[in-house]
Design goal:
The chain has 470 residues and is α/β, with parallel strands linked by helices. 30% of the residues lie in helices and 14% in strands. The protein has one domain. The strands form 5 sheets. Strands 1, 4, 5, 6, 7, 10, 11 and 14 form an 8-stranded mixed β-sheet that branches. Strands 2-3 form a two-stranded antiparallel ribbon. The chain has a two-stranded antiparallel sheet with strand order 8-9. Helix 14 packs parallel to helix 15.
Amino acid sequence: MLSLLGNAYQNCDGLSRRSFLTAGACGFAGLTLADLLRAESAAGIGSSNKAVINVHLDGGPPQMDMIDPKPLAPTEIRGEFLPIATKLPGVQFSELMPQLAAHTDKFAFVRSLVESAGRHDAFQCQSGYSNKDLASIGGRPAMGSVVSKLKGQPTDKAPAFVDIMQGRPLVRNSGRPGFLGPSFQGFRPDISELFHRELEAGMKNELKAKGADHTTSLTLDASLTARRLNDRTQLLAGLDSLRRDVDASGMMSAMDSFTQQAVGILTSGRLAAALDLSQEDPSVLAQYTPKNGVGADDRFVTAEGPDAIRKFLLARRLIEAGVRCVSVTISDFDTHSKNFSRMRELVPYVDHGLHALVTDLENRGMLDDVSIVVWGEFGRTPRINKNGGRDHWPRVGPAILAGGGMQGGQVIGATDRSAGAPTERPVTYKDIFATLYRNLGIDALDITIDDPHGRPQYILDAGQPLRELS
């Protein structure tokens, strides 16, 4: 559950918005997320329903073990998994993805994702760019931060961008605001009590070496009590002790709007209600619960457990509460060893979770408004290594798209006989982002945002929306 500070209230009726001093004041007193949304709808409060759920398969998903099997390739390439027929004539998937195979009409499958930067993080999957692009002025902003800049308002009841990525150290810091500055940083609630994701010792050392901005815990600072949130003067005075760090990061210039929005989010009750899965209808929660036979018993230390499927539910609840962009991870696809036992565990979770998410959104009438993308930083090597694993392969990788009014029931692109190189219709990361931005009503190839030097920067400097999905 989400841990919050402050005095509890017996009743939320009649209290002003500023009086809700804890994020859960209403939610935990019996008013659910659905109640809050209905009340705000009746009061004429609402926002655009267009949103994006960005799912990062941390470590790099193996294309040939998921949506691009090569049953005629040699054993050392095709691996252990059998191909299965899909709803699309002549198209096969791995046996690990029976749900998506049976419901291909709801999805579009890209087999030819190219131009990976080759970095072992999620930055390119968050922005479309290499981390080196515009690095001298802070780097390119993540999509969620751009959406926050263009679509968010200080009076919003929920943050525009919520980042619940839990992957390897560099993944955890991938959804950065870049040159937009700290006021457009994604909101990062601590979900570690809901979804445990262990770090290997080497990863912990890597995280520590990155400094204070790369922390394992995302817990709210315990000094930020409800009373301090209610007293703006006291809050800002308390921040004076951090002024040196704040000035160095550029936070002071954004503090007024940042504080206004942060207090609004914490006092509205919507975010806490969205993060509280105990408020979900048990029948819906059951849809996001693995069935017998989903997953295996050979969990790698950094891999997800069965409950990871509920991250998709959490994303839906956040979108329903007004969030416009949610970033999620499923770990750990970095299979340099034991690829087949580990994929036998992880891929069915993705298969089950995506089907549950799309079905849930469709049942709620939200699917046409919510775009879903599922991908990783690169694919995996066609040839199996001596440890039974697949190594990094930036030449080509997979992506799965759904919702957002996109045309499903198709496969885009193709690869050679080993799934090692595209043979038709290469698709870039920026093409995918151009498509997602278009679904949000943003022409990313035409709109510019000024950088800190006042120079206009296009949201995307290349790429085109995928014509097949229109």
